[in-house]
Amino acid sequence: MYIFCNCKYERITDDARRSVLSRFAGCRRAVFNKALELQNDRKAKSEKSISYLEMAHLLMEWKQPEEMAFLKEAPSQALQQTLMDLDRAIKDTFRKKGDPAKKRWPRFKAKDIGDGFQLQQVKPQDIDEPNGRVKLPKLGWLRYRRSRPPRVQMRGRNADSGEGKAGSHHEGLRQMVRHLCDRVRNPRSRDEGEGCRH
């Protein structure tokens, strides 16, 4: 059985790296808004929406002009994940009326509101748990405040970086644990943070 555990830690960065992370989040927001603008135009013309694969090809074209060359700074994984998120959000708007997963049409992202990005392929060797470090593409090793140790052996799955309320910077590590459980508990339970009894 696979269990996904989300752990959020405070990131310890200097101003230079914080600026780079902010630019990565800005690139993500620019890609999301540009792709959403295309989808809105197609919706207004009553045309079929663009799929993720078509948008991924457009992403390569968007990086070519000089005015959009800043997109090359950000990790491609983060930009591709943004397009996947938008594709999922658009598909969720077309669900049946009574479906609880039905959502409204996506809206443009604003600066400094939920800024962040997600990286899907963090390797186990990219997480240095004892020293509280994680290695991110195009950034190198970043330290985080290890506020609580995991109770089970984990291996890296993905990471996200963002800014929370009141300007607190965080690093989220989503871990995948292969573990047999007697029963799965509510992941919001305070006594079982990993979401299982073992």
How would you characterize this protein structure?
A hairpin with a 5-residue loop joins β6 (155-163) and β7 (169-178). This protein is α+β, with helices and mostly antiparallel strands. Strands 2-6-7-1-5-4-3 form a seven-stranded antiparallel sheet. 30% of the residues lie in helices and 23% in strands.
What tags apply to this protein structure?
198 residues, alpha+beta, disordered C terminus, globular
Briefly say what this structure is.
With 198 residues, the chain is an alpha+beta fold. The protein contains 3 helices and 7 strands, in the order E-H-H-H-E-E-E-E-E-E.
The chain-level mean pLDDT equals: 75
Q: Enumerate the spans where pLDDT stays under 50 for 5 or more consecutive residues.
A: 175-198
Sheet with most strands: strand arrangement: 2-6-7-1-5-4-3
| Whole-angstrom Rg | 19 Å
Structure classification: alpha+beta
How many distinct helices? 3
Name the helicity range: 25-40%
Distance N terminus to C terminus? 13 Å
Strand fraction:
15-25%
Characterize the overall form.
globular
Give helix and strand order, one letter per element, not per position. Answer: EHHHEEEEEE
